Amino acid sequence: MSTMHPLYVSLSFGMALLYGWYLKGWRSVCRGLGYGLAVIAIVAAANAFFNGLGLTVLFHVGDHPITAEALCYGLCAGGMLVSVIQWFSCYQEVMTSDKFLSLFGRLAPTTSMMVSMIFRYIPDTIRKAREIQTAQKAMLGNESPGKKQELSQGIRMASILMSWSMESSIETADSMRSRGYGETKRSHYTKQKINRYDVILLCVVGLLIAVNGYWIFARANQFAFYPWMEGVSIPWWIGTLYAILLGIPLLLEGREQLCWLPSRL
């Protein structure tokens, strides 16, 4: 999110696809990639149509010039947006509520509990809405509802979801109170301690973040799209370090697969 340099955007987009492919499979990634490419195309087309800056005119739409600089800016902006969405989708697959509470339960117990509950209620609400929609379709059969009926169904669904959410919140609060939440220091299901491997990995990640952060804010952000594209070129070894930083989650998740790969060949 800190730069729209084409190299950084491309590497982030590619590594997010690889990590998502490992976590969710190629079908889910291809389905999300279709939506992502559509978003990139819409952002690029909108920026090229409404922004006439740039000296390299490709063609005209009426009296409005479509420039290569505006098109490239839109592609990079859309690619950055889709990459962030892809990384957050990977985060959602990896970071469970129990892991979140293990990390921040002692520092901010109330806030971490609230965020964890929000993350749990969002998919539960979506799942409940689909169940309600399926039940409404079953009651109607093959009858195609009109606009008024669709509006009535939407209002009824919202009312049911609000009632269900309030009831579920009351049940959750009663359950937490009966289990002694807030009375004593919170315990954990699993005891996780930081070992020497974790310290080394944190140092490596911190070093990679520092190096890439310097190049992003001091050099990469000097890349200009208007009035023509110019900027400092990023050395290959900086791109390699950035790819390594983005690939660390994939290496951590896939190290078991890599260890067993020779025996499967």
Automatic annotation (TrEMBL):
It holds the Pfam family CbiQ. InterPro entries: ABC/ECF_trnsptr_transmembrane. GO terms for cellular component: plasma membrane. CDD domains: EcfT. The keyword Aminoacyl-tRNA synthetase does not apply. The chain crosses the membrane at residues 7-23, 35-58, 70-88, 100-122, 199-218, 234-252. This is Cobalt transporter. It comes from Solibaculum mannosilyticum.
